[in-house]
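Input (structure):
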């Protein structure tokens, strides 16, 4: 083998090795990029979206701060989780302390068409100004077009704090 042929053969081996290395780098980077892109896609496709977690409990006040038997409107913020979207919204509840261990809380919307109702101190009823539905302090319909009692929040008392959970729709009257 001549000197020239030997040099040519060495060059070819180096060239092949470099090419193999470059291909390995390209394949390696492609695999890493593919993996990086597929992980979020796999999470999106395989994990179910979070359910509407209105089951989250929100602390709204101390039991001691509520006057017994008298409705108080409490305004608070709660997170609404819808799929992957989490938003914070301002809402309210009409809360009545029946005893140190029992508190009820009404959702703020009338069960007719959803208007905000208010408490009528003199009559001790809730009045909806839209179509004059009236509700007693248990949320029952006294008169008006409202088809069912007021909806209630789930309520629990922990360590002297009042926590509100999801709203449960009242059954049709
Ligand atoms: S929305 Fe309340 S009575 Fe119609």
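Output (sequence):
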């Amino acid at each position: 083998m001549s000197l020239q042929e030997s040099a040519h053969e060495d060059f070819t081996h180096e060239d092949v090795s470099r090419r193999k290395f470059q291909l390995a780098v390209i394949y390696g980077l492609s695999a890493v990029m593919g993996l990086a892109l597929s992980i979020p896609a796999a999470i999106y496709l395989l994990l179910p979206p979070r359910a509407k977690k209105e089951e989250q409990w929100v602390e709204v006040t101390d039991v001691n701060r509520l006057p017994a038997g008298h409705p108080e409107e409490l305004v608070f913020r709660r997170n609404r989780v819808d799929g992957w979207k989490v938003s914070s919204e301002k809402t309210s509840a009409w809360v009545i302390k029946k005893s140190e261990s029992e508190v009820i809380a009404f959702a703020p919307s009338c069960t007719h068409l959803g208007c905000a109702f208010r408490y009528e101190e003199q009559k001790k009823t809730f009045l909806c100004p839209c179509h004059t539905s009236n509700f007693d302090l248990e949320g029952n319909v006294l008169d008006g077009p409202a088809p069912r009692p007021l909806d209630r929040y789930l309520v629990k008392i922990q360590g002297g704090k009042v926590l509100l959970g999801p709203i449960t729709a009242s059954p049709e009257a």
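Notes: Helices lie at 3-46. DSSP finds one helix and ten strands in the chain.
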